[in-house]
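Researcher: Here's a chain I'd like modeled. Treat it as a single chain, no partners, no ligands.
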Amino acid sequence: MYDIRHTRLTKWLNDGIPPAQVADWAGNSVLVLLATYARCVEGQFPDLKRRLEAAGDLPERLDAG
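Model: Modeled as a single isolated chain. Structure tokens:
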């Protein structure tokens, strides 16, 4: 059962659902959720960069890691 839960939470985060919403659905705090699942989230940097550029808020240098 835990594997199914882990898969679902990871998928929701990777699909871009806000961590606060996923934490609520999971019955966790955002802090606990991200401490456990942040390393599983991938592929969101290009979308974040596009959104920041569109808003004009992109820092002079933005490193991915």
